[in-house]
Task: structure prediction
Amino acid sequence: MLAAGLLAGSAMPGVAAASDPPGRSSTTRETIDWKPCPKDTTADCGTLRLPVDWARPSGETFDLAVARRKAADPGRRVGVLLVNPGGPGASGVEFAVDDAPAHFSADIQERFDIVGFDPRGVGSSHPVKCSSELLDQQPSVYPRNQAEFDRLADFNRALRADCRRHTGPLFDHADTLSVVRDMDALRRALGEKKINYFGHSYGTLIGEQYAEEYGDRIRAMALTANIDHSLGAREFLVSSAATAEDSFHQFVKWCDRTSSCALHGRDVTAVWDGLLARADRGEVHDPESPDRALTANDIALFAVKAFYGPYWDELATYVAGLDARKPAERRGSERSQQADPETRAEPFPAVFCQDWRIRAKDYREYARLTQAELRAAPHMRGSPRAHKGAAGCIGWPDEVNNPQHRLRITEAPTILMLNSLHDPASSFAWAANVHRQTRGTTVLVPYAGAGHSVYNRSDCTRDAVDDYLTELRIPSAGSSCAPTGTH
Result:
């Protein structure tokens, strides 16, 4: 990939004049200098120079990294299919180059140019970078009193300042609404009047907001594992906790009925709760790094990642292995002798904290939120990822570039949504709420099983997306897809 750079420059060809509404100009377009991707020459790679701040299109610029796989059957080509795999922080370029051939059906690959891009601040699109040394000093995101809350807020402010210093002006414009404007500039650069879009997880927020801003420029849009961007702090944290807890119960049920489960025949919930209690006492150590004590949050995070699959066999083996180990004495962790690079890519806080107005003001408010999480998820103790995301915004300025709001889609065609009933991260309740907000514009197809990914779950889920993208055939209202295998 060509390295992304933040360059000062004058007004650029293809960028809307300052008098135009941000991103709404369609009279000119920037071009992409396509070249074979270094990693895979069957795909094309390039960059598109865009404004850092769409309100100042003649100001600082950055290079948006883009990758394309041309339609394998040009005679049947429908158009471009822009893709984003989520995160925030996942690379659309890597998805297009590495994953798209195995992910999408032959029909999609034959009929669409599959185009992935790294959202601003991510991957090769001028990534947000922060000091490795400072990142390694992260205090607990579970403060126990006002002093520890203040320490976390001070750290977050110091980290934000550090990341801004290492990243430059783009740091303050890493929000999804800016990404949406980049995506429409990409549409123009590709020479397309209308796009098709496939977004997964956080990539659904890009799709939802693109539909708000540029709905008339969409031919078809399929969204899987949907984000509800209308939620306040409490609703976001509690619903995230509840869906993680639901996935835990799905795992327990699977283990009870599956003889190959490493915990089969045992009280899985009791084993799990006991393991987390031991971790609270510092008695559980990482099998791969025996000097490092595992926290309850570490173990819960491992579980959530396993729920994504779901990889229940792997999780059961992991929990059984930790449970069988004798309590270890609390020891200080040894630092690796290998020097870290001076900076690391860390886009998540820059994106999340500019997309969500979630700012606990003091420990009392934070403790109330944490208690609500615990009530919703007594075994998982909340959602580790959602909790950390919200904790990372403590101490940030109150102003948010892209605050939560109910979706207002007025010009888009019918949008297809799919969501697992037992998604560990993107709650089905989120998808249902997005659908309620956009009932005249969206069709929601539930997958009645577990896991985070949806498209390749079954012939039913894949065909629903393929038929819609290729032929614009909309599933009938009330359609759903049955779970596959033992899920």
Q: What stands out?
A: Residues 126-174+236-400 form one domain. Residues 104 and 182 are 24 Å apart (CA to CA). Residues 1-21, 328-337 have pLDDT under 50 and may be disordered. The chain has two domains: 1-117+175-230+405-487, 126-174+236-400.
